[in-house]
Write a structure and sequence with these properties.
The chain is α/β, with parallel strands linked by helices. The chain is built from nine helices and 37 strands. The protein has two domains: about 210 residues, Alpha-Beta Complex (Spore Coat Polysaccharide Biosynthesis Protein SpsA, Chain A); about 180 residues, UDP N-Acetylglucosamine Acyltransferase, domain 1, CATH 2.160.10.10. α2 links the parallel β4 and β5. The longest helix has 21 residues. The structure holds uridine-diphosphate-N-acetylglucosamine and calcium ion (CA).
Length: about 450
């Protein structure tokens, strides 16, 4: 069996935050969630997250995605793993991962599981450009791993070592739990260090090895917000490159923000400063112009989406949305429609060939096929207490500057004349007109201007 322990109980003091460190987001997903995802991709049968500082926040956010064990108080990384009591005595391979290394690839974890076929412990190491305060990997003359020394405990010679501990390890599970008992806290921070297991397990005449990571950016630990921003950049580049390789055009990958959960089909073109998040799918040949923000939405093929916000909604095929449209709360826009400038839809079903070109609010509304919604149409759907529905049927024509006081139905082929405030249903084929009668006063214009 394959297990993973994610160490996520620390506060992350250097983040200067009330939020537990592992809840900070990289490419819009909490660090810990990235690690749970890659663990699953690497085939883990059971994942235990060690929580402590802000444990309720972490548990609530990750509920159902993994198991939890509480570490209270937090006495170090070795002490953290001891809390995973549900793994004690089980046969199998266990990876232990620092909760602050969000950019890990599943392939790296798979490789560590494989390495455990012929050793009892493996340490993933790296040679970053700046070894900063990482624990140093100390090897003997033959190049074998001897021990790991924390930066704070290291002497000058040890600090000069370039190879560092990434905080990602693999163990034979039974060896892990019997060895944890032997860790002591006689060090600079008076903590129980997981890194002491190198010497403890070697002392049992079992094989321990170091494996160098291919890429030090992938395994970098996040301790402050500068490193968080760096991880964001790195992970966004990985996500965007994967999308480009699969046939998506991203005009400026340094300025395009897409979460890893997003699925994008080929020949989609994405302009700079676009944000796409959550459970979103974008269909073939759709173009997304700058400043668009799309969350948890399903976008079909051949759409043009210009500088618009689309949240929790569906846009089917061949629509022209924007610029500056806002679709939210379960909108469904069918095919070949036009939803134009400064138009807001909330919970609207908008059928084929219908048009709403400018400056409109539709809320809780059904719009049939081939219907025209003029400029400045407003559904008046809220009386301060309750929301009411508006239905506008097929081929209707709603003129400009119309207020529709819901609940109201406008029938098939019905017309609502411009400037009308309608509070009664309009039957199929009828016209509603309700305007204040206009009066013209001859010469008053000149008089007003004193001519
Ligand atoms: C740790 C390693 C160091 C390594 C570095 C890589 C130890 C002793 N040191 O140092 O060798 O180079 O990671 O990034 O392990 N945590 C708990 N409970 C605790 C303490 C920490 O769950 O009691 C968790 C933290 O939430 C964090 C992870 O363990 O996700 C690492 O802790 P952190 O304090 O960041 O360790 P480093 O000092 O970076
Ligand atoms: Ca760290």
């Amino acid at each position: 069996m394959k297990y993973v322990v994610i160490m996520a109980a620390g506060k992350g003091t250097r983040m200067q935050s009330d939020l537990p460190k592992v809840m900070h987001k990289v490419c819009n997903t909490p660090m810990i969630e990235h690690l749970i995802d890659v663990s699953k991709e690497a085939g883990a049968d059971k994942i235990v997250s060690i929580v402590g500082y802000g444990s309720e926040i972490v548990k609530k956010a990750m509920e159902g995605k993994c198991e939890f064990a509480l570490q209270e108080p937090q006495l170090g990384t070795g002490h953290a793993v001891m809390q995973a009591k549900q793994l004690e005595g089980l046969k199998g391979k266990t990876l232990v991962i620092n909760g602050d290394t969000p950019c890990l690839n599943p392939e790296t974890l798979t490789k560590l599981y494989d390495e455990l076929d012929d050793c009892s412990m493996v340490v993933l190491t790296a040679i970053p450009e700046d070894a900063s305060a990482y624990g140093r990997v100390i090897k003997n003359e033959d190049g074998y791993l001897e021990r790991i020394v924390e930066f704070k405990d290291a002497n000058e010679e040890e600090r000069a070592v370039k190879e560092i501990n990434t905080g990602i390890y693999g163990f034979d599970n039974e060896v892990l739990f019997e060895s944890l008992k032997e860790i002591k806290n006689d060090n600079a921070q008076q903590e129980y260090y997981i890194t002491d297991l190198v010497e403890i397990i070697k002392g049992k005449n079992k094989k321990v090895k170091a494996v160098l990571a291919n890429n030090s950016e992938e395994v970098a630990g996040i301790n402050d917000r500068v490193e968080l921003a760096r991880a964001n950049k790195y992970m966004q580049r990985v996500i965007n490159e994967r999308l480009m390789e699969s046939g998506v055009t991203i005009i400026d990958p340094d300025n395009t923000y897409i979460s890893k959960s997003v699925k994008i089909e080929k020949d989609v073109v994405i302009y700079p400063n676009v944000h796409i998040q959550g459970n979103t799918v974008i269909g073939e040949n759709t173009e997304i112009l700058p400043q668009s923000f799309i969350v948890n939405s399903k976008i079909g093929k051949n759409n043009l989406i210009d500088s618009s916000h689309i949240v929790d909604s569906e846009v089917k095929d061949s629509n022209y949305i924007g610029p500056y449209a806002h679709l939210r709360m379960n909108c469904v826009v069918e095919n070949k429609t036009r939803v134009g400038n400064f138009v807001e839809f909330k919970n609207v079903h908008f059928n084929d060939l219908s048009r709403s070109g400018h400056l409109t609010y539709l809320g809780d509304t059904y719009v049939g096929k081939d219907t025209n919604i003029g400029c400045g149409v407003v559904t008046i759907n809220f009386d301060g207490k309750n929301k009411f529905r508006t239905t506008i049927k097929d081929r209707a024509f709603v003129g400009s500057n119309v207020g529709l006081i819901a609940p109201i139905t406008v029938g098939n082929d019905a017309v609502v004349a411009a400037g009308t405030t309608a509070n009664r249903d309009v039957e199929d084929g009828d016209m509603a007109i309700g305007r204040v009668t206009q009066e013209n006063k001859p010469g008053y214009g000149y008089k007003y201007k004193n001519k």
